[in-house]
Amino acid sequence: ADRVTVMANEAGATPYAVLLAVFGVLVHRYSHADDFLVATPVLNRTGDDEDVIGYFGNTVAMRLQPKAGMTFRQLLAQTRDTAIGA
Q1: Which pLDDT tens digit goes with each residue over 20-31?
Q2: Which residues of the chain form beta strands (DSSP E)?
Protein backbone atom coordinates (compact mmCIF):
# COMPACT_ATOMS: atom_id res chain seq x y z
CA ALA A 1 0.00 0.00 0.00
CA ASP A 2 2.86 2.36 0.74
CA ARG A 3 4.39 1.84 -2.71
CA VAL A 4 1.06 2.56 -4.36
CA THR A 5 0.70 5.78 -2.38
CA VAL A 6 4.26 6.87 -3.16
CA MET A 7 3.81 6.20 -6.88
CA ALA A 8 0.50 8.05 -6.87
CA ASN A 9 2.06 11.07 -5.20
CA GLU A 10 4.99 11.09 -7.63
CA ALA A 11 2.61 10.97 -10.61
CA GLY A 12 0.12 13.48 -9.25
CA ALA A 13 -2.51 10.76 -9.26
CA THR A 14 -4.64 8.90 -6.75
CA PRO A 15 -3.97 5.38 -5.48
CA TYR A 16 -7.11 4.37 -7.40
CA ALA A 17 -5.54 5.54 -10.68
CA VAL A 18 -2.39 3.53 -9.93
CA LEU A 19 -4.40 0.37 -9.27
CA LEU A 20 -6.54 0.96 -12.37
CA ALA A 21 -3.37 1.31 -14.45
CA VAL A 22 -2.06 -1.96 -12.96
CA PHE A 23 -5.34 -3.61 -13.95
CA GLY A 24 -4.91 -2.18 -17.46
CA VAL A 25 -1.43 -3.71 -17.69
CA LEU A 26 -2.78 -7.11 -16.64
CA VAL A 27 -5.65 -7.02 -19.13
CA HIS A 28 -3.25 -5.97 -21.90
CA ARG A 29 -0.68 -8.61 -20.99
CA TYR A 30 -3.16 -11.49 -20.92
CA SER A 31 -5.54 -10.48 -23.72
CA HIS A 32 -3.28 -8.32 -25.92
CA ALA A 33 -6.13 -5.80 -26.05
CA ASP A 34 -4.86 -2.26 -26.44
CA ASP A 35 -8.18 -0.43 -26.20
CA PHE A 36 -10.91 -1.46 -23.77
CA LEU A 37 -13.45 -0.11 -21.29
CA VAL A 38 -13.58 -0.66 -17.55
CA ALA A 39 -16.82 0.03 -15.68
CA THR A 40 -16.24 1.82 -12.40
CA PRO A 41 -18.56 3.36 -9.81
CA VAL A 42 -18.48 7.10 -9.16
CA LEU A 43 -20.33 9.30 -6.69
CA ASN A 44 -22.37 12.18 -8.05
CA ARG A 45 -22.71 14.18 -4.85
CA THR A 46 -22.05 17.89 -4.89
CA GLY A 47 -21.81 20.24 -1.95
CA ASP A 48 -25.52 21.04 -2.30
CA ASP A 49 -26.46 17.36 -1.92
CA GLU A 50 -24.67 16.66 1.36
CA ASP A 51 -27.83 16.86 3.49
CA VAL A 52 -29.96 14.75 1.12
CA ILE A 53 -30.49 11.06 1.84
CA GLY A 54 -30.24 8.76 -1.14
CA TYR A 55 -27.99 6.89 -3.51
CA PHE A 56 -26.01 9.20 -5.76
CA GLY A 57 -23.83 6.55 -7.37
CA ASN A 58 -23.38 5.96 -11.05
CA THR A 59 -21.34 3.61 -13.21
CA VAL A 60 -18.96 5.15 -15.72
CA ALA A 61 -17.10 3.36 -18.50
CA MET A 62 -13.45 4.41 -18.44
CA ARG A 63 -11.34 3.82 -21.53
CA LEU A 64 -7.88 2.35 -21.08
CA GLN A 65 -5.44 2.22 -23.97
CA PRO A 66 -2.24 0.41 -22.96
CA LYS A 67 0.06 0.09 -25.96
CA ALA A 68 3.06 -2.17 -26.47
CA GLY A 69 6.21 -0.24 -25.63
CA MET A 70 4.39 2.19 -23.35
CA THR A 71 5.99 2.63 -19.93
CA PHE A 72 3.92 2.16 -16.81
CA ARG A 73 4.33 5.84 -15.95
CA GLN A 74 2.94 6.80 -19.37
CA LEU A 75 -0.04 4.52 -18.85
CA LEU A 76 -0.51 5.91 -15.35
CA ALA A 77 -0.55 9.49 -16.69
CA GLN A 78 -3.10 8.47 -19.34
CA THR A 79 -5.21 6.65 -16.74
CA ARG A 80 -5.02 9.61 -14.35
CA ASP A 81 -6.26 11.96 -17.07
CA THR A 82 -9.08 9.56 -17.97
CA ALA A 83 -10.15 9.24 -14.32
CA ILE A 84 -10.15 13.01 -13.85
CA GLY A 85 -12.36 13.42 -16.91
CA ALA A 86 -14.85 10.76 -15.77
Answers
A1: 999 999 999 999
A2: 36-43, 57-64
